[in-house]
Amino acid sequence: MLTNSKIPFARALQTLRNEQKIPFCIDFKENSKDVIKLEGFLSSCEYDTRLLKFQARLSGQIELVCDMSGQEYLKDLDENLEFYLSDGIFCCETENFEEIIECENGMIDFLEILRSELEMIRCDFHTKDD
Questions:
Q1: Which residue, among 14, 12, 38, 28, has the nearest Cα to 103 in the 3D structure?
Q2: What top-level branch of life does the organism fall under (predicted)?
C-alpha cells in the first residue's frame, strides 16, 4: 500500500502495464477539525494507454460554513471518486473521458488531488441541515 503522497507518473504507468493495481492511502489533517482519508487504487485505463484510472473513497469530516447562517459546522464525508490522470497536458480526440486531471512535473501528487477535491467541496453551496 502506497502511503507516500507522490509517485512518478512513468513508474506508475510501467507498473500498471503488467495488469497490476497500485493501492494508496493518504491520511490528511488540515486543521484541528478536518480529518480526511483518501483510500483507493490506480489502474490502467482501458481506453487510452497514456492515462491512468484513479478510483478512491474520500471519507472523514470537513469543517464547512453554512451559506444561510454563516455558522461553521462539521460535515461527514463518504464519497466515491473516479477520474483519469494524465502526465501533463492531454489532448483528447474523443468524448470518452468525463474528467481528466493533468499531473505536473511527471508526478502524481495524491495530496494535491485531495486538496483539490476538498476545495471543490468547500466551494459548493452548503447549509447546516444538509
A1: 12
A2: Bacteria
CA 70 to chain centre: 28
- What is the 8-class DSSP label of residue 46? S
Secondary structure class of 54 (helix, strand, coil): strand
Residue of 4 and 121 predicted with greater confidence: 121
Go through the chain and tell me how many residues it has.
Answer: 130
Query: What ranges do the domains of the chain cover?
Result: 6-123
Average pLDDT, the chain: 88
Asked whether the CA dihedral 23, 28, 72, 123 is positive or negative, the reply is negative
Cell numbers linked to 13: 504507468
Whether 26 and 111 have beta carbons less than 8 Å apart is answered as yes
- Which pTM does this prediction carry? 0.85
DSSP 8-state class, residue 117: H
CA atoms of 27 and 34, how far apart (whole Å): 11
Q: What are the start-end ranges of the E strands in 15-71?
A: 22-29, 35-44, 51-65
SS3 98: coil
- Which grid coordinates belong to 71? 455558522
